[in-house]
Write a structure and sequence with these properties.
Oligomer: homodimer
CATH architecture of chain A: Orthogonal Bundle
Radius of gyration of chain A: 17 Å
Largest interface: A-B, 34 and 35 residues
CATH class of chain A: Mainly Alpha
CATH topology of chain A: Arc Repressor Mutant, subunit A
Strand content of chain A: 5-15%
Order of helices and strands of chain A: HHEHHEEH
CATH superfamily of chain A: Winged helix-like DNA-binding domain superfamily/Winged helix DNA-binding domain
Chain lengths: 96, 96
DNA sequence: TTCCTAATTAGGAAAAACCCTAAATGCAAG
DNA sequence: CTTGCATTTAGGGTTTTTCCTAATTAGGAA
């Protein structure tokens, strides 16, 4: 949960996640979409992999990254537990 | 969105959010729940405030922090857009 | 083997985050 | 005004993040 939210806390990494929403992409194609060096993007991909958000698969000389939805749902579960299960308490009378 | 996910990326701050789920709490009570100094907790509260996740309200000498659900829903919306699900419904967040 | 391309790891500088102690602020009561 | 309590801000040391360039690994083709 800790590395997961930390991975989501960088705009480049969130953008990568959005890109992978349509399907797996090669590392070079991902790196080419940003205005930073390839090694830097590799670092972000490693952070996402560490968080379980993506997984790489080799195909010859190219490496494709695929989005791992279940990790996203893990973060989703935390946020839903916040918005979905709110108990009424004494200074909290003005709910919608 | 950037400060929002960054705020969520620290375990102490996520725990504060969980604590505030039941209602506003005084700064001192929040700080007392952790094994760190009060100024450090104040720093975390500032990070949460910066992200729009909590808002402080003064009552005499004590300051109470209240959870701001709409910011949570903002993060929720991003994750839901990834999994492809719909936006959170209005009547879904007020039941116990 | 050698060469080329795809991609990563290594090393390090700059910036930010984290947590502490000490000092300051704000409010209320005497 | 002065004291006291609740809380925040200031300053600084240590660790982590972020990004770069240079070097390295890995696979395919000649």
């Amino acid at each position: 949960m800790n590395t997961l939210f930390k991975a989501l806390s960088h705009p480049v990494r969130r953008r990568i996640i959005e890109m992978l929403r349509r399907g797996p992409m090669a590392s070079g194609d991902i790196a080419g979409a940003f205005d930073m060096t390839w090694p830097t993007v590799t670092g972000h991909l490693n952070a996402l992999k560490e968080a379980g958000l993506v997984s790489p698969e080799r195909d010859g000389t190219t490496i494709r990254y695929r989005l791992d939805i279940s990790a996203v749902e893990e973060a989703l579960a935390f946020l839903l537990s916040i918005t979905g299960a709110r108990a009424p308490a004494d200074g909290d009378k003005d709910r919608d």
